């Protein structure tokens, strides 16, 4: 019995010394958990084939109203670190961590660390609320990519330079993508553009391109307004001469059709980047689609002058 205990102790000491000597806090490969689709893309482009990425929840689930499952606990137990939104988009992740008994042990990378956040109007007496959909902005996404690369480099110092270089290359691709559409938008006269959105997810994207959202329809994602709120919103859309309504792609809503019919606005759809399979290219693909939609909407407004 003593020899067995000695062998196990010797192995643990050997493993600890080996990890310290290689500059790694964890064994190879580093197992990185993510809570949202964009973070999968960010991490995949930063780590390449030098780490394993583990989505905390299966593809096809809506992260806005997700209920933790038993498999989630098994997954979180296998992670060395978890990338989280941490400002309202993945509160269920903290429930899973708590249930798995890893609240004090699992390192977390807060993607929104240092990001300027857009406040959201809350009911009287409610806690301060911010817009959690920061990743729809290319500028914020780049900041998050660098944050993720930096924090992963602290856990895996042998690959810190590799992660940093990949982050720079990925950020450059995103900057070029933004520049491509910024050039197109700069050629359009959109002084008469007045837009509303179904919910506040696109605030960071609109802010990035200097566009003001006149009205947000849903008080919370997936929560339809009361009849009184809807009537007030329709009146506001009419009085503010709103001519474009941005709804959510992949999320059917009779409400958006009701508003379109009542106001005559043109309707376009943005991707919320929380649907489909996890992939390294999802963020670029969905961002390009969103920017194409934005250009299309602005061209329509410019042509109608």
TrEMBL record:
<dbReference type="InterPro" id="IPR006128">
    <property type="entry name" value="Lipoprotein_PsaA-like"/>
</dbReference>
<keyword id="KW-0862">Zinc</keyword>
<dbReference type="GO" id="GO:0006829">
    <property type="term" value="P:zinc ion transport"/>
</dbReference>
<dbReference type="InterPro" id="IPR050492">
    <property type="entry name" value="Bact_metal-bind_prot9"/>
</dbReference>
<feature type="signal peptide">
    <location>
        <begin position="1"/>
        <end position="27"/>
    </location>
</feature>
<dbReference type="GO" id="GO:0007155">
    <property type="term" value="P:cell adhesion"/>
</dbReference>
<protein>
    <recommendedName>
        <fullName>High-affinity zinc uptake system protein ZnuA</fullName>
    </recommendedName>
</protein>
<keyword id="KW-0406">Ion transport</keyword>
<keyword id="KW-0864">Zinc transport</keyword>
<dbReference type="InterPro" id="IPR006127">
    <property type="entry name" value="ZnuA-like"/>
</dbReference>
<keyword id="KW-0732">Signal</keyword>
<keyword id="KW-0813">Transport</keyword>
<dbReference type="Pfam" id="PF01297">
    <property type="entry name" value="ZnuA"/>
</dbReference>
<dbReference type="GO" id="GO:0046872">
    <property type="term" value="F:metal ion binding"/>
</dbReference>
<comment type="similarity">
    <text>Belongs to the bacterial solute-binding protein 9 family.</text>
</comment>
């Amino acid at each position: 019995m003593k020899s067995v205990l000695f062998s196990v102790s010797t192995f643990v000491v050997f493993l600890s010394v080996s990890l310290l000597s290689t500059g790694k806090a964890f064994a190879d490969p580093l197992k990185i958990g993510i809570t949202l689709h964009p973070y999968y893309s960010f991490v995949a482009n930063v780590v390449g084939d030098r780490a394993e990425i583990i989505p905390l929840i299966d593809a096809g689930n809506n992260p806005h109203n997700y209920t933790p499952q038993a498999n989630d606990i098994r997954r979180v137990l296998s992670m060395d670190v978890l990338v989280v939104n941490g400002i309202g988009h993945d509160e269920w992740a903290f429930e899973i961590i708590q249930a798995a008994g890893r609240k004090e042990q699992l390192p977390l990378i807060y993607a929104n660390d240092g990001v300027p956040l857009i406040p959201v109007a809350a009911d009287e007496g409610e806690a301060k609320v911010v817009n959690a959909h920061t990743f729809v902005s290319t500028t914020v996404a780049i900041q998050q990519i660098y944050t993720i690369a930096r924090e992963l480099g602290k856990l895996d110092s042998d690959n810190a330079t590799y992660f940093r270089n990949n982050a720079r290359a990925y950020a450059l691709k995103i900057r070029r993508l933004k520049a491509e559409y910024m050039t197109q938008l700069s050629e359009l006269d959109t002084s008469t553009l007045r837009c509303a959105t179904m919910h506040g997810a696109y605030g960071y994207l609109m802010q990035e391109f200097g566009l003001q959202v006149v009205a947000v329809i849903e008080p919370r994602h997936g929560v339809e307004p009361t009849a009184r709120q809807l009537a007030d919103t329709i009146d506001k859309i009419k009085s503010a001469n709103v001519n474009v309504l941005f709804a959510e792609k992949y999320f059917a809503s009779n409400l958006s059709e009701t508003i379109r019919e009542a106001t005559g606005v043109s309707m376009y759809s943005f991707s919320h980047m929380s649907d489909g399979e996890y992939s390294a290219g999802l963020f670029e693909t969905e961002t390009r689609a969103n920017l194409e939609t934005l250009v299309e909407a602005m061209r329509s407004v410019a042509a109608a002058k």
